[in-house]
Amino acid sequence: MGNRSTLVGMEVPISGSCDPVKWLDLSVPHSDSHSNGVSSGSSPPLPLAQFPPLTDDCASCCLVGDPPLYFIWRIHKAQPNVLELLELSAQSEFPKIGLRITFPDPLSPFAHIHQNQDSTLTNPYTLYILSVSGVAYLIKLRTVPAYSSISIFPKDELFEFDLTGCSVDAPITSVAASAECLVVGRKDGSAACYRFTLPNHAVPGFANELRDNSWISRLWGSISRPRAVGSVLDLVIRKLYKMPFLFVLHVDGVIQIWDLLRHKKVYNRGMNVQIFEGKTRDNHLNFFFVPLPFRLLVSTSYSFNHIIWNSMDRQTKQ
């Protein structure tokens, strides 16, 4: 057995969480034309732009504001078009009221909530959601008790955009968001940035494709075919010196960093599979393979002079 340590955990109830939560049910109305005039037409959305359907329940937490509020969201696989929201705070008791939002289509396992910089008493938060059919939603959230008297989201507090109407029809494999934009990664290795903070989709700069297609790359490509990167596996948005950067992890181990203001790639590096050689007692050779990462974790160092990124291999995903 040796001295190998084992991590043991136990799920325990939060104080006050045993009381039933009263859910306020709201619905997002179905729209025949997405994103202020971007029509989906008579044909159904492109199947290549869809997320795979949920196979398990999913949940996560968004940390908002100072002092911090914790928005816990959850999607049940039995009700894939329903998002549940709970707002927790260390300064208050466990919430007695939660928000349950019903969307027209099943949802992808993604949600992002942030506090508005110009927050008002009416809509202090913003919620990003993406459906498996490729429709992105931006919802101007009120406080949870403010929805006790309504059952349908007001149209002026809801913005939706059909990503299947874009020129790129590759499947979406990863999503990330910040206060400034929503970013999706695709199976063809590209990423796209959508700035929902702009007035409408027709404004220049609303949608930007992040791919290495500069004129020097096209010229070099005519001489030597460049190595194509694999599909996008994970996305992380972080600010450095008040500038937003996108960290992209590809399935083949390539890490790219993009400047989201100039839409330029500033870093590109591949991580090869490491092979370690060892010998057993009978002098037989053993080879140990370190698998490629499946998730990217980005954090600033204490000196604030550089960025540290860590990867988790697939064997730790249990």
Task: Provide the fold topology.
Layout: E1 22-27, E2 33-34, E3 38-39, E4 58-64, E5 69-76, E6 79-89, E7 97-102, E8 107-115, E9 125-131, E10 135-141, E11 158-162, E12 172-177, E13 182-186, E14 191-194, E15 207-210, H1 215-223, E16 232-240, E17 243-250, E18 254-259, E19 264-270, E20 274-279, E21 285-290, E22 293-300, E23 307-313
Structure description:
By secondary structure, the protein is mostly beta strands. It has two domains: 20-31 and 46-165, no CATH class; 167-318, Lipocalin. The chain has one helix and 23 strands.
Task: Count helical runs.
Answer: 1
Strand content: over 45%
What is the count of distinct domains?
2
Oligomerization state: single chain
Spatial ordering of strands, largest sheet: 1-7-6-5-4
Provide a short characterization of the protein structure.
This protein is mostly beta strands. It has one helix and 23 strands.
